[in-house]
Amino acid sequence: MELILEDGTVFSGKNFGYNGSVAGEVVFNTGMVGYPETLTDPSYTGEILVFTYPLIGNYGVPAQTMVDNLKANFESDKIHLKGIVITSLTEDYSHWNAVQSLDAWMKEHKIPGLQGVDTRALTKRLRTAGTQLGKLISQGKDIPFYDPSKDNLVAQVSIKEPILYERGEKKVLLVDTGCKNNIIRSFLNRDVSVLRVPWDYDFSNEEFDGIMLSNGPGDPTKIPETIANVRKWLDKDKPIFGICLGHQILALAAGAQSYKLKFGHRSQNQPCILVGTKRCFITSQNHGYAIDDQTLPADWQPWFFNANDGSNEGIRHRTKPIRSVQFHPEAMPGPVDTAFLFDEFVAML
Amino acid sequence: MEHNISKVIILGSGALKIGEAGEFDYSGSQAIKALKQEGIYTVLVNPNIATIQTSDHLADKVYLLPVTADFIEGVIKKERPDGILLAFGGQTALNCGMILDETGILEKYNVQVVGTPVDVIRSTEDRQVFAEKLAEIDVPVPRSRAASTVEEALQVAEEIGFPVMIRLGFALGGLGSGVCWNEEEVKDLAVNALSHTSQLLVEEYLKGWKEVEYEVVRDCYDNCITVCNMENFDPLGIHTGESIVIAPSQTLSNSEYHMLREIAIKTVRHLGVIGECNIQYALNPKSEEYRVIEVNARLSRSSALASKATGYPLAFIAAKLGLGYSLTELKNSVTLSTMACFEPALDYVVVKIPRWDLKKFRRVSTQIGSSMKSVGEVMSIGKTFQEALQKALRMLDIGAWGLVTNPNGLGIKKNDEELLEELINPTDERIFSVASALKQGMSVDELYKHTDIDPWFLHKLANIVRVEGLVGEYSGGNCPRHVMDEAKRVGFSDPQLGKLLGTTERIVRKMRLNYGITPYVKQIDTLAGEYPAQTNYLYLTYNASEDDIELGDKNSVMVLGSGPYRIGSSVEFDWCCVNAVKTVKKEGYRSIMINYNPETVSTDYDEVDRLYFDEIRLETVLDIYEKESPEGIVISMGGQVSNNLALPLEQMGAKVLGTTPTQIDRCEDRHKFSSMLDTLGIDQPAWSELTSIDEAKKFAHKVNYPVLVRPSYVLSGAAMGVANNDREIESFLQKATDLSTDHPVVISKFLSNAKEIELDAVAKDGKIVTFAISEHVENAGVHSGDATLVLPPQRTFLETIRRIKLIARQIAKELHITGPFNMQFIAKENSVKVIECNLRASRSFPFVSKVCKKNFIEVATQAILGKPFPEDNRSFMELDYVGVKASHFSFTRLLGADPTLGVEMASTGEVGCLGDDFHEALLKAMRSVGFRFPIKSMLISTGSIEQKAYFLEAARLLQKMDIKIFATTGTYHFLKESGIKVTLAAWPDEQEGSNVLDLLAQNSLDLVVNIPKNAEVEEITNGYKVRRKAVDLGTPLITNIQLAKRLVEAIYSKPDQDLAIKAWDEY
């Protein structure tokens, strides 16, 4: 099997998982744990993901148990990315919680994998040349390149009908633009009910105590419907909290602008500094677009920034309980240092 | 950043010992660099003269003094520092710091502790307080209770239920701890343990649980990160210092990884650590249940490993955080573009394996467990566990070519029973036996049942065994490319492949290069390639398709390091390597270092232009040599590991710098060397190389006993020994399994009552340019690495020195030496014989360099590079002070080992102290290796009648000082008859109860002098019992009569113990 990049570079290796050709955008992630969570993160829709950590599959894949109508061990119901590229696959996994191998699971979901690749060399190429289109070609079956940023990926991954997750009296309206399960769990664990609605759902007539804007795949400007829905609530006093794509949507709704990063942030070790302090948090991230905080309107202010490249990592309204972060406080995978943001949001409801 | 500190004292860790080794040279050196960057005046106290941190270019002031409260108080009084650093000198510094705090010395002199406050340290050290602290935040520790008597320990054990683990408060390296399965074992362990500490801890033993560690960093703004996590290959019950360790963890899911990470951060915040600490967990392999085992609120062995594993300089950062910096204000020193407040992402794996040296000791148990016995460690880097593991096994330098296909039958047991025993009750060779079991067809499930090693690891080992079989199919034929490629990717070496294919390493290399299978150079950049990094920290892997960096683009010189610390080769060679690299840089070359010992300073990427953290083996050195095309390779700095490569490297066409490999061979080859000495008319002890016991005996009769016996291949037990009669020669040679023409025995005449003298020198083009001569306190027969060295010599005739000088000149000329060399001589009256010559730097180079204040290595490197060096005619004979190097023995940790000195080296470390006279230097050195003065009572048992007579004068001095003397029967009668007041201490076999052993246990004697009649006997003698009891109780022990006498004289000469607090530069 080969990985062919847009610029013509070819990386050869051995196929695992599903044996078939796929095309998408090639990105890399430097996380060292959490491949079941990563593979089921809807934000990776349309991507071929390169793992820089060389050993993948070590602890197998856990059971498909449902808790609260959510897959307990995954971030959504299926694998969303197009394929993965790794250095070395562990077939003889070992974990008390595992029921199958990564290889078997990917075969089930018809997701191809490529192993035996110098993923560091590949990553350096992506880092210098920027994110590229690419395709995994199985047994010479060539297919055309595919640019996921041309599509409305959110529409592909969002739910079709609202779902209510009942818990305590307080209720959060969750706009699902490709939501990870752990955002929902984060509320349920804090005894807050969640009404999960589709990305383009008009929720003006719903009853709720706050709005949660979820993570999701792709370019935020591709979903003006969601941005317009959110904008209606900015001059009201309902608390709003956004994560990742949700953060970008909130910023765009407020009037700021987004841009595409050269190769994105996909890792579990991104340091983010709380503006105006010496406090730094290690965060989990997965995004290819970012907000230009120079374009924020006057009643908004930057909240967090990335300590490595200075990019915006969060914004907040100067007076209203409306704020958002680019990183993932719900973690899964990654560090849980910023889980307190959920506590703060729930306290505002 | 502003802070109110302008001068600090840094406490070092003293001599290298089991549980406290080179890692503290690395962390201390980093701390000094960090402080100097801030313009802070640094005062270092460390008697370990072989360390880099005691070099003239680091701390502003160096005191080669014991790290004990009284000496530190002296230094504080003199230097008046604002701050003190306790976290960089291991448990030694921490314990000393706590005493300084408790006794009010820090307060008295207004010295502030930089970094984690003392009360926080105390809460991590006192097991009971620690458990209470963690209970406050609902973090579970193993169920346990403290006990301060044996009865209490038994009672707690009953409550918790067997098996239980017994640990000691305030101890390092799991000293004295162990698993007890019944009451009897609790009793035994508790009695011993309570002789070291007032408090012990009885806790639940979590058999088979995984052991996981996190390295945590926290600043005073409450930013807290985990820099690295590590998982032990061996399950709980085997001390982490005795375990094979992999970083990052391999079998933890996201949820487990981050659960433990979050708890680490929560715990460290709650405790209030500032700087760096380490947290160890037990994790249930069947659930997410866990326990916190311990927190070390200081830099540790693990933190040094984590620094090397990730490229994150923990000690450097910790020092800055202690001053009040925020992590957000510090740079990532690898990328220089990103910040220190981040958690490294690895795109490789790291495997650490401990290096044991148990065969060097008589009677020691080779089982590994909850107490540390290893003397060093290696770290390897690879893309896969298999690649890294096989590298690491080779790095140990114990003759392994990898996990399998080993030349010396490693791990192969006589029968299934022995194999099972090894699997269940591991020794230092278990991993090889696991491979053996897999080869015999034992399933992973069954192996897991016996070993509790996670099946993930076992499957990976099974795959190596599978590949071994696959390659073996092509024995005698042509190995296809894809098979060789697969083998190299899982870490097979060329020698392994050579053996499997029935050919030589050389042919395999040729085949491999023809196939285009070569390793690639990768960088360690802390961010897995996410950001560009100008890092010079490199390793090789076969799981890659391109090099990370441009190669061979500059004039460079390669220096080979010394590999793992083991008995006979440790920090002193690292000092040589670091100084060689410094000189290489200074002379305008790009310096390239190859080494793989994570404890060292030479593997600090700060010290060198390019660091290859990889094997020092012909194959690897050639791979790097061919990529970098350096001007040449310096092989004379890393001890025997690098020296052994001289001839093979040259034969493969590499350029070896310095004395030519042919000449090195003339010196290493006993026959060639001997006939050269004969030709030059230089005397040497009579010797012969023999292949049978009969011949050996015949030779011994010819030259008269005693003789020194040195078999070339011994399966177990000490390799060398002195034989006094036929019976002893037989017992020695029976241990040599294979006495034949291929494995002959070398027997030489052993000269008793002779002095041993060493020469360290540098020559250029056959002419000596500088040298120093040191004498041993002990007579010949004590290994030079264990002997007490004196420079300048105090008791050697001038004529002897003159003769030694002449011989050295002749040899340097004959071998056309360029570079460092060392010779050992035996002198009796004025006759001088050569016993050894090494054309490389020796163990004593740092000692002589620092005592003479003349950097021998710098001069040697300049000579090797053909560069000029300034003329320096200062002679060691004109020094108006004396340097004494003393050895540190770790017998206390080596359960059962007979603590005697012999021709095999046994010490794990050394110190070097200066004094205005010999007595002062000796007393400081002895204090530094754990002796306690003043002496109020002591036990004497002086062996043979000659030794009794020799010691009599000293005994009279003891009497004059009113020291209470106990003596064993023979010595008692001798002393009594000589008019000395002495109390009898009966031998154990003479009297049950109230014998010498009870005396030792009940009284705290300050010193035991026990001179074995014959150091080589292996039976359990009375003497053995006394010696062993002394070290088990932590009572200072001397087993050499010359040293005993010199020490008594020294004590007598300084009745008030007024030892000068003088810095190195004040001499």
DSSP helix fraction of chain A = 10-25%
Strand tally of chain A: 24
Broad structural category of chain A: alpha/beta
Question: What composes the largest sheet of chain B?
Answer: 7 strands, antiparallel
Helix content of chain B: 25-40%
* Total of domains of chain B: 8
Q: What best-fitting shape of chain A do the alpha-carbon axes yield?
A: globular
Uncertain ranges of chain B: 714-718
**Strand-residue fraction of chain B?**
15-25%
Main-sheet strand order of chain A equals 15-17-16-18-19-24-23-22-20-21
Note the beta-strand portion of chain A: 25-35%
Number of domains of chain A: 2
Cofactor (chain B): Mn(2+); Zn(2+)
GO molecular function (chain B): ATP binding; carbamoyl-phosphate synthase (ammonia) activity; carbamoyl-phosphate synthase (glutamine-hydrolyzing) activity; metal ion binding
Catalytic activity (chain B): hydrogencarbonate + L-glutamine + 2 ATP + H2O = carbamoyl phosphate + L-glutamate + 2 ADP + phosphate + 2 H(+); hydrogencarbonate + NH4(+) + 2 ATP = carbamoyl phosphate + 2 ADP + phosphate + 2 H(+)
Protein name (chain B): Carbamoyl phosphate synthase large subunit
Q: Topology of this structure?
A:
The complex is a heterodimer of chains A (349) and B (1067).
Chain A: E1 2-5, E2 10-12, E3 14-17, E4 22-29, H1 35-39, E5 47-51, E6 55-56, E7 61-62, E8 66-67, E9 70-71, E10 83-85, E11 88-89, E12 98-100, H2 102-108, E13 112-115, H3 119-129, E14 132-137, H4 153-157, E15 163-165, E16 171-176, H5 181-188, E17 193-198, E18 210-213, H6 224-231, E19 240-243, H7 245-254, E20 257-274, E21 280-292, E22 300-306, E23 312-317, E24 322-325, H8 340-348
Parallel strand pairs in A: 4-5, 5-10, 6-11, 10-13, 16-17, 16-18, 18-19, 19-24
Antiparallel strand pairs in A: 1-2, 1-14, 3-13, 4-14, 7-12, 8-9, 15-17, 20-21, 20-22, 22-23, 23-24
Helix pairs in contact in A: 6-7
Chain B: E1 7-11, H1 23-37, E2 41-45, E3 61-63, H2 69-79, E4 83-85, H3 90-102, H4 105-108, E5 112-113, H5 118-125, H6 127-135, E6 144-147, H7 150-160, E7 164-168, E8 178-180, H8 183-193, E9 200-204, E10 210-218, E11 224-232, E12 245-247, H9 254-271, E13 275-283, E14 290-296, H10 301-310, H11 314-322, E15 349-355, E16 376-382, H12 385-395, H13 416-424, H14 430-439, H15 444-451, H16 455-472, H17 481-489, H18 494-501, H19 505-515, E17 520-523, E18 537-541, E19 556-560, H20 571-586, E20 590-595, E21 610-613, H21 618-628, E22 632-634, H22 639-643, H23 646-651, E23 656-657, H24 661-668, H25 670-680, E24 687-690, H26 693-703, E25 707-711, E26 721-723, H27 726-735, E27 745-749, E28 755-764, E29 767-779, E30 789-791, H28 798-814, E31 819-828, E32 831-838, H29 845-852, H30 856-865, E33 882-888, E34 909-915, H31 918-928, E35 937-941, H32 945-960, E36 964-968, H33 969-977, E37 983-985, H34 996-1002, E38 1007-1010, H35 1022-1032, E39 1037-1038, H36 1041-1053
Parallel strand pairs in B: 1-2, 1-4, 2-3, 4-5, 18-21, 19-20, 19-22, 20-21, 22-23, 35-36, 35-38, 36-37, 38-39
Antiparallel strand pairs in B: 6-9, 7-8, 7-9, 10-11, 10-13, 11-12, 12-15, 13-14, 15-16, 17-18, 24-27, 25-26, 25-27, 28-29, 28-31, 29-30, 30-33, 31-32, 33-34
